[in-house]
Amino acid sequence: MERLPPLNAIKAFEVAARAGSFTLAASELGVSSAAVSQQIRNLENWFGKQLFVRTGNRIALTDAGHAIYPQTAKALGDIAAIGQRMLEGGMRTRLSSACRSRWPNCGWRRGWPRSSMPSRRWPSMSVSRTIRST
């Protein structure tokens, strides 16, 4: 896996860029504006580029900030969508089992009751079973 930038700093960057203010970003994130500023500095150090121009209490994205903002917003949106689908049960775990047997009924009688246990224990899991004759 490629080296990732600090994800908390990416989140702080996305919110600050969208809000146009470290103070508003801090309010949304539930942290202090100094914490947001520190996260942004960490990210700027990581990239080796300034992402915001700071003038007094105002901030504006630099060209580098404008370049990465759409991708960071999309990536965080995708992560949020995955989390929502998981919470709603839309992403099911699938368990597949297969065996070969000269006596297919043997697998049917012995293997089936035990292999159905995962679906009873974890109802969001999809279980499929196959027995093939040899």
Task: Write structural notes for this entry.
- With 134 residues, the chain is an alpha+beta fold.
- It folds into 2 domains: 7-88, Arc Repressor Mutant, subunit A (Orthogonal Bundle); 93-133.
- Helix content is 59%, strand content 19%.
- It has 6 helices and 4 strands.
- The chain has helices at 7-19, 22-29, 33-47, 63-88, 104-115, 117-121; strands spanning 52-55, 58-61, 93-101, 125-133.
- The strands form 2 sheets. Strands 1-2 form a two-stranded antiparallel sheet. Strands 3-4 form a two-stranded parallel ribbon.
- Strand 1 (52-55) and strand 2 (58-61) form a beta hairpin.
- Helix 1 crosses helix 3 (33-47) and helix 2 crosses helix 3 (33-47).
Q: Brief description of this entry?
A:
The chain has 134 residues and is of the alpha+beta class.
Secondary structure blueprint with pairings:
Elements: H1 7-19, H2 22-29, H3 33-47, E1 52-55, E2 58-61, H4 63-88, E3 93-101, H5 104-115, H6 117-121, E4 125-133
Parallel strand pairs: 3-4
Antiparallel strand pairs: 1-2
Helix pairs in contact: 1-2, 1-3, 1-4, 2-3
Q: Roughly how much helix do the residues carry, as a percent range?
A: 55-70%
Q: What's the order of the H and E elements?
A: HHHEEHEHHE
Beta-strand content estimate? 15-25%
Radius of gyration: 25 Å
Mean pLDDT across the residues is: 83
3D shape: elongated
Specify the structural class: alpha+beta
CATH superfamily of the largest domain: Winged helix-like DNA-binding domain superfamily/Winged helix DNA-binding domain
Low-confidence stretches: none
What are the key terms here?
134 residues, alpha+beta, Arc Repressor Mutant, subunit A, 2 domains, two-stranded antiparallel sheet, two-stranded parallel ribbon, 6 helices, 59% helix, elongated
